[in-house]
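RETRY 2/3 - previous attempt timed out on the joint model. Re-submitting the same 322-residue input unchanged.
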Amino acid sequence: MRDFVLKRVVALVLPFVTMLGLYVIFHGHLSPGGSFSGGIITGLSMIAFSLVFGLDRSQEKISERMMTLIESFGALWYGAMGLVGILRGTSFLMNKGAGIPLGEPGKLYSGGLILLITLGVGLKVASTMVTLFVSLMEEEEE
Amino acid sequence: MNAHIADLLNVVVLSSLVAIAIAVSYVKDLLYAAILLGAYSLVIALIWLLMNAPDLAITEAAAGIGMTTLMIAVISKIGRKGE
Amino acid sequence: MSNKIAIILLVCIGLVLLLAISELPLYGAPDNSAQNYVSERYIEGAVSDTGALNMVSAIVIDYRAYDTLIETTVLFTAVIAVFMVLKKAPDRKGEPK
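RETRY 2/3 succeeded.
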């Protein structure tokens, strides 16, 4: 897995794969896709980096502790977004009824809570995949 | 799209699905079996696309092809070490 | 011998599954049971209710947001299970291993 051609090709392609994943996450309310698929694509790009360049170099980019933190706070973020509805006096996870500005349909900011929740869950899914993969790989290398 | 062409495409896609599913059971190496399962997911993603469900197609392509193949490959290596 | 039994069982299961498929409604038929007032309500009201053009996102994260909350928890539980099985406990100083 330390081939020169592989390294160069992966270094060329990976930024675009990461951008595709982030695009799918950010446009989850406008185009097909969403938090889960975009998060998995983003996570796959990080996994490909650690497969080709080694686990140590990927740990330098984003440490395992950071990944665990992102993952835990992604789950909490969803619940916190749901509490907005309760604070505004309506029910849990309320979007339009809680008075959140919906924006103009078709623009990047539209859908109120949907964009924020998609962002949190997408990052959470990406870090979940990376964490699962890294812990399995570490088990294998020992 | 012409109805006949759509029917023909459906037949080709579904029969290749069956062929891949049978081929998985004939492969000895676990890594090849995992890669064949990835091909199976690719065909299923095509089917979702033919049924006008691009949302599912993207998820199937990402999770089925990428994640499942990787996880099966890594886990099969762990099991081999224990033998 | 066991090969033959397996093949017979597989054929039986396949026949049952084919029978079940023949009972399914046709793809895209106008009188499907899926096309009732619920889907009509979603199709008509998704954009004005949520402001999202992608109706799947609108349903998953707005109308059925509670489902998705539990779904993310399932992923979280999977990671916790993998950590429980694979991770070594850190030392007292906080250093891993």
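Residues 3-82 of chain B form one domain. Closing ticket.
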